[in-house]
Amino acid sequence: MKKISICLILFWGVIQVSAQTDSIYIEAKLSPDKKNLEVNQEIIYYNNSEKDLQTVKLLNWVSAYNKRGTSLVYRKLEDRNNDLHFAKNNQLGKLLELNIKNSDNETIQVHTLSDENLFVPLKEVLKPGENITLQLQYKMQLPDSRFTGYGTSAQNTALKYFFIVPDHFDPDNISKRNYHDIEESVSFNTFWTVNFDIPVNSFVESNLPQVQMNSFKGYLDSDPEFLISQSEHPSIKVNIDGADTEIKFGYNLKPEERQNLEFYLPLQLKFLKDKTGILPKSLFISDKFRAKEDFFGNNDIIFWKFRFQLFNDAEKTDLDYFGIIAKKILDESVIADKQKDHWFKNGLKSYLEIQYLKKFYSEAQLLGTLPELKLFGIKPLKIFHASKVKLLDRYGLAYQYIMLQNLDQKIDEDFAVLSNFNDMAISSFETGSLFSYSADKMGYDPFNDIVKNYISQNSGKKIKPEEFLTSLSEKNKSTRYLSDFFKHKNRVDFKLKHIKKENDSLQIRIAKNTDISIPVKLETETKEGEKKAYWIDTEENQRITSLSLPASDHIYKVTLNNGYIFPESNYRDNFLYAKGLFSNTKKIKLKLIKDIPNPEYNEIYISPRVRFNNTYDKFLLGANFKNQSFFDQKFLYSVTPTYSTGTGKLTGSGAISYSIMPAESIIRSLTFGVSGAYFHYDYGLAYRKGSIASTLSFRKNPRSTVSRSIGASYNYFERDLSPAMIADNDYSKYNLWSVGYGYSDSQMIHEKSFSLSTQGMEDFNKITAEGFYRWEFAPKQKLSLRLFAGYFLRNNTRNDLFNYGISRVSNYSFSYTLLGESASSGLLSQQFILADGGFKSFLPGTVNQWITSANVDSSIWKIFHVYADAGVYKNKDQPAKFIWDSGIKVRIIPDFLEVYFPVQSSLGFEPSFKDYGKRIRYTLILNLGSIINAARRGWY
User: Fold this and answer.
1) Distance between CA atoms of residues 911 and 932, nearest Å
2) pTM for the full model?
3) What kind and span of H or E run contains 773?
4) How far apart are CA 464 and CA 568, in angstroms?
5) What is the rounded CA–CA span in Å between residue 354 and residue 433?
6) How many other C-beta atoms are found inside a 10 Å radius of the C-beta of residue 508?
7) What 8-state DSSP symbol labels residue 433?
């Protein structure tokens, strides 16, 4: 009797556990054209919250593809992708029909099919622990897969996030969750049964266990995904410690790739099992997942017809698939809310990559074998420090790159607002570096044991990563800082203050700029290259730490956190020499070309410069001396002495600036700068310009395209004057001050900007406002509108030098790049700058009182646009005058090289004029930086 009672108790316990697991049964039929999916579905949903439920939220994420304005469309636009925004109706995804019934077979009214969150009212209150059965019948139109990788295409149909399911991360069923295409899990702790009716000669593959043809059944802690295609895809079975794991691929493998995988997969899976303690029976890797999780930075470099290989095919396969497999194992085994806890799995993936690289690629270079490339018998890339940077350094370098621009984000930032680069550099690389740093300090085996135990103890339930950090700090108190560290943008800086020999020891002083207790790794090196490492525990509320090392060790160099192993704000103060001429100082290194910075040296970059300045200086030949590498710095200087081939004289420019970039503030940067320049603005006439300026840039969301700034400057000018200018009492010396505010939003579809500024000197004060709007109304077809207004508050100038321009600008501040600064005729005078009035026709005169104008431009066909300008201006003692013009614009290189052909204006029908060729205008912007900035939008 006692045995029977025990059995009943155990049986009831099993039933109770099973009772808390939702189950979903699906019968799905795909239409022959693969555009429509008909579904019969049953959901058994348990109330796992602590309160009564009156509604159940169902996610209808196919509706994210239904119309403009959804979160998905907006996110794609942030990524500079407008395909979904301009998609045709038959390319969209939408719910066409929906019928929901409760367990009493009563129909539940659903008022809309277009919402991504369907709140289904319940007949009776659903108490905690109780379940309800819902019967669903629905039909949907599948979107084109080119938008997100899910949907239908000519080759296959990928199904994920399309079935209507509960949101298990919202047990209270109150919060809306929209689809952003960020691979966030919504269904866990669920038993699935899915049967497909698909077109003939089609095959289905899934991450669910297949029980028979087109039928799948099993328990998942991740979301189910299915691939329906016209051919079967390969799989590889691997036996690890007596257990089989099947890797299924949602794409075809090349013979060489398969051969490499058959060699590397056993090594990778064994490594991952030893580190994490988990290894699922099967893994399904889709083409999209492969593209998202492969190794960043190991691709071949393709230039014109040449291909340069960084790593051989076997190494690329190994590097790519280790990260892919590692992340897939974590996704299938760890239940985490990606919005809040993305950093846990991303960080573990990078941690595992770091350990794998340390074991198998410890000496590999960031550029692979590319530095060995010979050109005319030499290896030119060897002169770059980048050729010596190790592959392992990529994790710290990525963080440095984005942090120095103050565009990094805190580790526990919501994933939806992370920029694409910070998804990698912060959520993955910075977190993984911190895990590796902690493991190095406390011991890799203890760290790995904590990882194994934490994953095992949380199997089948949502994790709370804070508990993992608590486990680390309980094991080793040196990791206590991590919990708070993850909540902020950090600017920790360890600094070697001084090395001093006293008797038989070296006294070393280490400073840190924080009161937090964070360990630091110190490494010593002799001239012979012998290295020793020491872990130093710093004290809380104590910023200086001193230690003593034996002088008998013949220490030559001391380094802190070598190899970018900790996310510091400045590595340049982590190196000191204990002996020689440069003891307690940094060496200076001259370099010819911009490079990844070597923090061990003060680097000066010297690069030859040849550029065309204007028709007076012609080509400038010289050299640029600066300290700016590929990474930004707070203090920058640049000096460029040049020889003017047009005048035979020395010219040049120089600038010094310093930026303050608080990590967490309303301010992104506050920059102060001083600059000077000496060039020519007419034949035989030079100008000298000295400036003091300050710019305050406001903090921005790195995913956002919005920027705001305030600037102030003081400029002093000296100009050489011709005899005629002297006779006209022209300005030879003048001072200008200006203050302005700028706003810009460079988003796709609706691009806009606004600026307001005031400028003055002893003879005038004026205020200027400019607004710009550009609407992409069809793919690559845009309509733009610019509004300008300028008003002199006071104008006692001696001539028209400072007047507003109508069709030409007066470049009295020498801020515009004009090929013919003082040209009044000829091709150079036809250059157009969109400023002031912005008229393209040569309308005579300037404005000394006020002007308003509007400039409109619209696409008509490919590179051809039409434009029209209209405005009203008034000069002193004269009536206001209305002017206008219109014509055709040809955009040869948009925003950089464009040609304007005037047609009709206030002057008449201009093509009928004999000198029409002289009335054609053009824009030419020779600014490589602008082209680069336009190209990289969406990445940051």
Assistant:
1) 37
2) 0.91
3) strand 764-778
4) 27
5) 8
6) 24
7) H
- Which of helix, strand or coil describes residue 315? helix
* Distance separating alpha carbons of residues 600 and 577, to the nearest angstrom: 10
Strands (DSSP E) along 314-363, which ranges?
none
| Per-residue pLDDT at 12 exceeds 50 | no
CA pair distance 39, 140, nearest whole angstrom: 8
Q: Judge contact between 558 and 499, C-beta under 8 A.
A: yes
Amino acid (1-letter code) at residue 319: L
Q: Residues 519-563: pLDDT tens digits?
A: 999 999 998 889 999 999 999 999 999 999 987 778 889 999 999
pLDDT digits (tens, 9 = 90+) for 644-693: 999 999 999 999 999 999 999 999 999 999 999 999 999 999 999 999 99
In sequence order, which residues have a C-beta less than 8 Å from that of residue 5 and are 6 or more positions away?
none
Contact criterion met (CB below 8 Å) for 819 and 828: yes
pLDDT one-digit tens code per residue, 586-607: 889 999 888 999 999 999 999 9
Residues 157, 145: Cα–Cα separation, whole Å:
8
647: tokens are 């005048």
* Neighbour order of strands in the sheet with 53-59: 117-126, 53-59, 165-166
In the chain, what's the furthest Cα-to-Cα distance?
Answer: 123
Say whether 934 sits in a helix, a strand or coil.
helix
The residues near 284 (Cβ < 8 Å, ≥ 6 apart) are 205, 206, 207, 225, 248, 250, 328
**pLDDT tier at 932, thresholds 50, 70, 90:** low
Beta strands in 60-197 (DSSP E): 94-101, 107-108, 117-126, 131-141, 151-152, 156-159, 165-166, 190-197
Cα 923 to chain center, whole Å? 31
DSSP calls for 868-916: EEEEEEE-TTS--EEEEEEEEEEEEETTTEEEEEEEEETTEEGGGSTTG
Distance, C-alpha 139 to centroid of its chain: 37
C-alpha 134/C-alpha 47 separation (Å) is: 13
Residue 706 pLDDT more than 70? yes
In whole angstroms, give the CA distance from residue 161 to residue 60.
Answer: 8
pLDDT band at 16 (very low <50, low <70, confident <90, very high): very low
Give the phi and the psi of residue 428 in degrees, each rounded to 5.
-100, -65
> How far from 201 is each of 39, 212, 225, 226, 619, CA to CA, in Å?
21, 16, 20, 16, 68
Find the radius of gyration of the CA atoms of the chain. Answer: 33
**What is the signed CA dihedral for 93, 98, 102, 107, rounded to 10 degrees?**
160
Strand partners, 859: 865
- Residue 186 phi, psi dihedral angles, 5° rounding: -125, -20
| Mean pLDDT along residues 599-627 | 93
Beta strands, E only, 357-454: none
How long, in residues, is the chain? 940
Beta bridge partners of 778: 781
Distance (Å, rounded) from C-alpha 190 to C-alpha 573? 53
58-77 pLDDT, tens digit each: 999 999 999 998 999 999 99
Instruction: Strands of 260-342 (E only): list them.
Output: 282-285, 301-303, 306-308
Structure tokens at 137: 């019948």
The reported pLDDT for the residue numbered 817 is: 87
